[in-house]
Amino acid sequence: MTYGATHGVALFVDERGVEQRAALGTREFFEHVDETQFKWNLPLHAEGAPFGRLFPYSDFRGKRVLEVGCGMGTMAMHWARQGAIVSACDLNPVAVEQTAARFRLFGLTPRVFQADGGKLPFADHSFDYVYSWGVLHHSPRLDDSIAELLRVLKPSGLYGVMLYHRRSFRTLYLMRYVEGFLHQEHHFLSPLELTSRYSDGGIEEGNPHTWPVTKAEMFDVFSKHADEVKIRVFGDKEVRNNFKLLMPILWRWVPDRVVRAWANRLGWSLWISGTKSRQNDSSVA
């Protein structure tokens, strides 16, 4: 997840349209990754705290935090800089290697592990806060991965998970209507194959597995393990990009407040957060 102009390649395009390449694992590369991810999620940031409108950084300084699916380590580094004792894991060995390299490069202590989200190498109740950002919808065993994430969380601990939204503008318009109906791809692609083809890496023929979820589905899954389940919809960037396709000229004049209103209902991202069950139950996996 390089966040580059081409999926998986460290090629970045600035606001002037100028291409810039960066060698994987360099400070320049990580700064490009962070800058791109930051711009994609502007409404979620607080002053001096990227994603500070989602993550309760101040409550977890000096406490143990886990990220499942760390990618290039952007979010794990935000947590470390806010004072948390961060552990990060990913199934992809390149992600593990790059996140560890990033931490060393920026003078932080790497605690990075290669691990399957469906079978985490941590004891029950090991962490004060656990989170995952845009990863677990790529797992064919999503329920197991969520159960594992919450198994390693302490009773009454907090969690946050971002998953793609199946009732989104992107799914309903771009995938089902444009690609599925207009281009007639529903004749040879199943709903799972369609979302995998046109979600992450769509220009490069997609990825092996992406299955967005609904609010109702996730409320049911998380309620098995949590006393509190809150679900928020967002995704201004994705809605704006779909307006570009729907209204090739007029999209420039669509006010931000209109985009935000659409995103709050039909955005591409669901943010599921809350508090784990208080009971000391190690059987949640």
- Principal-axes geometry comes out as globular
Q: Helical amount among residues, as a percent range?
A: 25-40%
Strand arrangement, major sheet: 5-4-3-6-7-9-8
Treating each run of at least 4 consecutive H or I residues as one helix, how many helices?
9
Taken as a percent bin, the fraction of beta residues is: 15-25%
**What is the helix/strand order?**
EEHEHEHEEHEHHHEHHE
Distance between the termini: 28 Å
List segments where confidence is low: pLDDT < 50 over at least 5 consecutive residues: none
Mean pLDDT: 92
- State the total count of DSSP E strands: 9
Please state the CA-atom Rg, rounded to the nearest Å: 19 Å
Structural class: alpha/beta
Please summarize the sheet with the most strands: 7 strands, mixed
Describe this protein's structure.
The chain is an alpha/beta fold and 285 residues long. It has nine helices and nine strands. A seven-stranded mixed beta sheet has the order 5-4-3-6-7-9-8, sandwiched between helices. A two-stranded antiparallel ribbon has the order 1-2. Strand 6, helix 4 and strand 7 form a beta-alpha-beta unit. Helix 8 crosses helix 9. The longest helix is centred in the first third of the chain and has 14 residues. The radius of gyration is 19 Å and the shape is globular. It starts with 10 loop residues before the first strand and ends in a 9-residue tail after the last strand. The mean pLDDT is 92.
